[in-house]
Amino acid sequence: MGVEPENTLRSFVRAEQAGMDAIELDLHLSKDGALAVMHDPDVGRTTDGRGLISEKTLAELRELDAGQGERVPVFEEVLDAVGSPVQAEIKDVAAARVLAGVMLRRDLAGRVEVSSFHDEAVAEIARLVPGVRTVLIASRWEGDVVERAKAVGAATLALNIRRLTLEVVEQAHAEGLKVLGWVVNTQDHLRLVRALGLDGATTDYPEIRRAGRFTA
């Protein structure tokens, strides 16, 4: 989203061309049950429209400009547009169930990792899709965040880099969990990723990876 319209096919193709390891995207259910790719529940920030995704049909979402003439994609279109591994963030249990259907039909457990801030959604997708890799996300957390991840079967924690501590990383690693930092958009944060020994990071700027090889 730092260099192209957020959550659009154009942005995902750009990320893949830049050599990123995976593409992260966000899913919301439209009024008619489509897996719309957009971060916010409301279309106002990233399109020329207004209103909630949940109150719009896919056809209505298609009419919106998501930036530079891009349209709001659905999940299946992203899978067809790029070949990269995908991390799909879901917002609730309902989205988990629809996503599970797509993953089972297209045998995506090996390609698509599913993440959520919501423990119940992580547990639900794990229940419905055998072998799926899951990620529990947190911006603010208590001392039980590692136990929460284990309880819902998550293999990875994705944590706010601005609040992440070595203690949490070491605790997670001791329990066999990976730790990702988000959002890493500066060289200082990239240095922190390396200092903490994180397993990966999310960025809005693909070029930070290339530049970081020399300056971080």
Automatic annotation (TrEMBL):
InterPro entries reported in the protein's UniProt record: GP_PDE_dom, PLC-like_Pdiesterase_TIM-brl
Domain GP-PDE intervals: 1-213
PROSITE patterns: GP_PDE
A Pfam family: GDPD
Name of the protein described by the UniProt record: Glycerophosphodiester phosphodiesterase
Species annotation: Streptomyces argenteolus
